[in-house]
Write a structure and sequence with these properties.
By secondary structure, the chain is of the alpha+beta class. 20% of the residues lie in helices and 27% in strands.
Amino acid sequence: MIMKKCISTAKAPAAIGPYSQATAAGSLIITSGQLPIDPATGEFPADISGQTRQSLLNVKAILEEAGAGMDDVIKTTVFLNDMNDFAAMNEVYAEFFTEGNYPSRSAVEVARLPKDALVEIEAIAAV
């Protein structure tokens, strides 16, 4: 039986429902989708670049709480409110991962995200 542990940090926004910021199980850390909420202010950045950066900063903070980092990420899923924002999201996204060590990724357009965010990002890391 694999033991699981819920991960939580004040350096990322609290869950807005009955779920954990992340769960560690075995060598995997699986984050919940991270909205671009600044944990200090509770606000969103205005544009897709800022929102992408904040979502990834939230992922990073959660992984660090679990003893991992962005180079440990093996898979991400990016949910976009508008696929026309893909290039701007991708530019910021590339700042968070080491070339040659990029994780697998899916990016999909969705009809609507919680709190009308422009992006939400989830990650799976292996340590």
